[in-house]
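QUALITY CONTROL LOG
STEP: pairwise intake check
CHECKER ROLE: data steward
CRITERIA: each record must contain a sequence immediately followed by its structure tokens, with no blank fields

ENTRY 1 OF 2
RESULT FIELD BELOW
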Amino acid sequence: MRDEATPIIDTSITDDSQRLAFIDGMSRVATSVTLVTTDGPAGRFGLTVSSMASVTADPPTLLVCVNRRNPMDAAIRSNGVFAVNALRADQRWVAETFAGRPRKGNPYDFQSGSWRLENTGAPLLIGAVAWFDCVLIAAHHVGTHTIAIGRVVGTGVEAGTPLIYGRRSFGELVQLPTSSPTSQELPDPVWDEPDW
């Protein structure tokens, strides 16, 4: 594994209004909701993240972004393994638990789900629409976050609709008609309320 730090960036060149505009713009980009887990000598950790992406299929590789202040960052780098669990639409409560904001119970509590282990020993959530078991191959520090790149050594899928997040709220996919629909045939927008 390679761990590279970027040079210190002078944040004074980014004014507050540009930063706030960026955050608002990114809140409007819908993403899948994933639960990243790890287990090993540094301990068992889980964290809800929306910054997950495929890197390449040859060989299967993906990335996740984790805030460097979160203990998950050091745990992934120390354990050398992690799993990405793509949550099902009815698993919002799991997302909230591992985001540190459970409606009931304790934050980051693995009792909030049922788990299994595959190749790396990182916990895989039973019922997730997809899971990816990964070995860490690189970690890059960029600003406040670490980009953890993992070689996928196991993948699984289950039935269900993925949980998505956009405009600061959870939602699920609605399939649009394949023909040119009239306005009466379109489903109601999921995020039609202002988010102020």
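ENTRY 2 OF 2
RESULT FIELD BELOW
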Amino acid sequence: MSDHYLYPGMLFAEPHPHRVTTVLGSCIAVCLFDPMCHIGGINHYMLPLWNGEGLPTPRYGNVAIELLVERLQLLGCKASRLQAKIFGGAAMWDNGSSSASVGERNIELAWRILDRYGIPVVSSDVGGGASRKIIFFTGTGEVLLRRKQGSAPIGPGVGNGVAIGGNACSAVVQLPTETPELPRAATGKHSFSGRR
């Protein structure tokens, strides 16, 4: 199995199994998996909406999720079979504002677009004040998760690490704190930045 590091504003989907690592703060990673094809993909978006200026890249949630679904369909997956897992969306800096943080807006957008596609969310770990490191296994749909506490408090029921769903393809496992860091360098040859 090959390793890949996913940088912010990128997505990854390949026909062969990979172990994809990414680190999230207020950003969101949506992991999609087709249990019939045993193919999965992941994105890492930074902001919820592309405003129409510049290139429509996976930096933006509305672009990143749609591109990931399209890429998986090109690999033989069916949107009707896809299962989703959502991670990230932390409020990394508590600014005392009553307006929704970037993390909250990113979370809301992921749920809304996945609902529009009819893709069920089988697991999520979102919100709160903790950054997250996830490792997504594209051939099984499994995700390993480690949280690091940030400066914003975690509210009740937010960022609590509860896995939704009970089968192997919805597993969320928290990594112990002493897990060594994986290499951050990657060739990027399998990442898609949105340019065609």
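INTAKE CHECK: passed for both entries
DESCRIPTIVE NOTE, ENTRY 2: Confidence is low (pLDDT under 50) at residues 151-171, 173-196.
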